[in-house]
Amino acid sequence: MKAVWYEKQGAASDVLQFGEIDNPRPGPGEVHVRVAVSGVNPVDAKRRLGGRGEMSAPRIIPHLDGSGVIDLVGEGVANTRLGERVWVYEAQGARPFGTAAEGVTVPAHCAVPLPDNTSFAEGACLGVPALTAYASVFVEDNIQGKTLLVTGGAGAVGRYAVQFAKLSGAQVIATVSNDEKAQLATSAGADHVINYRTEDVATCVQKITAGQGVDQIVEVEFGGNLDTSLQVLKPSGVIATYASQAVPEPKVPFYTLLYKNVIVRHILVLLMPEDEKQQAIVAISRWLEQGMLTHHLGQRFSLEQTVAAHEAVENGAVGKVLIEIGG
Q: Which of 325, 327, 326 has its CA nearest to residue 18?
């Protein structure tokens, strides 16, 4: 089968290779998916660059997310799954071979039925962003009536977080960096949108909430936004954070956090307990079936253009970058 892989870490143009390799067969409890679309996340690029630790195997086929059709099943998996349209998560989690290939084997539970009303391209947008958003929004089970601040509300995770929170009865304030992203956050359902480049976020939040602040923050930049977060978060509020790129090792104001009784919850989808992932998948599947979710499809590439796809992600592409492989 055709695939893209790397055997050392580094720049995309230096290490990504395109060619033919053996098509893997599913083992016990696994399925083989004929990949239609592979989704590229920032973490895929960071892993390839070495920013998320050393390589786990001598050869890595990248990409955690994707979609396609189950065409082989391993021992213990029902034959009724053959021909099933699925979206795939964590293909290259603890495993060396991801979805940047014509075929991929994954544990059967990592291939989730894709409703007929959802395209393969849309299915490849889920995975890391949707599961991260769900975990970040539902730190507490019931958010109905609460006010959430979603930073980066137009991003891959942020836009799903806005939708999940609104579908669950919360008021949502989103931050963005420009007018185009403001439209994306608004279309996802945000009640209020703040351009953090032209407006003071803390002042705007206090005005929107009549000085009460927010119950919870879904945070894309923990260190860079921490001062603002502590200004707008209610006592006993929650910061659910999944990234801190600008300030990767922030100075933690312990006593400020203590005397506001702030809960800081770190969200890393690869380490989410499996029962929590399945809870998220049930909810996401229900919303998909009901046609309640929208997806932001970004630039599209062929498998041979995977280097360009990775470079687009590293350059801050808006929307999920997709690699179209099969039909």
A: 325
Cβ-based neighbour number of residue 2 at 10 Å: 16
Q: Which pLDDT tens digit goes with each residue over 238-292? A: 999 999 999 999 999 999 999 999 999 999 999 999 999 999 999 999 999 999 9
Cβ distance 185 to 254 under 8 Å? no
CB atoms under 10 Å from CB of 52, counted, come to 13
Q: Tell me how far apart the alpha carbons of residues 194 and 178 are, in angstroms, rounded to a whole number.
A: 9
Write down the architecture of domain 2-126+295-324 according to CATH. Answer: Alpha-Beta Complex (3.90)
- How many whole angstroms from its chain centre is CA 123? 12
Cβ partners under 8 Å of residue 182, min gap 6: 154, 176, 193, 195
Using one digit for the tens of pLDDT, what is the confidence trace for 184-242?
999 999 999 999 999 999 999 999 999 999 999 999 999 999 999 999 999 999 999 99
User: Identical fold at 2-126+295-324 and 131-270?
Assistant: yes
Q: Is 34 helix (H, G, I), strand (E, B) or coil?
A: strand
What residue ranges do the domains of the chain occupy? Answer: 2-126+295-324, 131-270
Fold of 131-270: Quinone Oxidoreductase; Chain A, domain 1 (3.90.180)
Q: Rounded to whole angstroms, what are the CA distances from 293 to 36, 188, 278?
A: 21, 8, 18
* Alpha-carbon distances, residue 51 vs 9, 46, 243, 306 (angstroms): 9, 5, 13, 19
